[in-house]
Amino acid sequence: VIPQLKSYEFNQGLQFAKERDKFIILHFFSDNCIHCRVFKTQVLTDPSVIKALNNSFVFIPLDTMLQPELGEYFKISIVPTEYFLDSQGNTITQYFGGMSVERFLYVLSYFTNGTYKKNESLNEYVTRKGKSI
Known about the structure:
Blueprint: H1 10-20, E1 23-29, H2 34-43, H3 47-56, E2 57-63, H4 68-73, E3 81-85, E4 91-96, H5 101-112, H6 122-129
Parallel strand pairs: 1-2
Antiparallel strand pairs: 1-3, 3-4
Helix pairs in contact: 3-5
């Protein structure tokens, strides 16, 4: 059985995350962006990624062409951009640009293992992992 990624509309996702105490990922993309298409077809279809997202995150895809007001509100200048929020909707950090499966799983671990609470930025955390991702 191939797992399916659960995704939510903006308001529904914020409410669901609050009720379930899950992190929120606002995934800003555009259909005319090559890196966004690669992320969608290669990363978001990976069973390990789907499992990690469904277990610990509320995934909210936001097309910047169809929902420009949210892109403007979050000051999105490049896509793809992942905005990471806590379960109450407060911004923790963001990550710009495309990622491999390995890098995205490592980025997700920054939140699930509690590193985000420490004095280490997501960028430092990913850089520490180095070129192996």
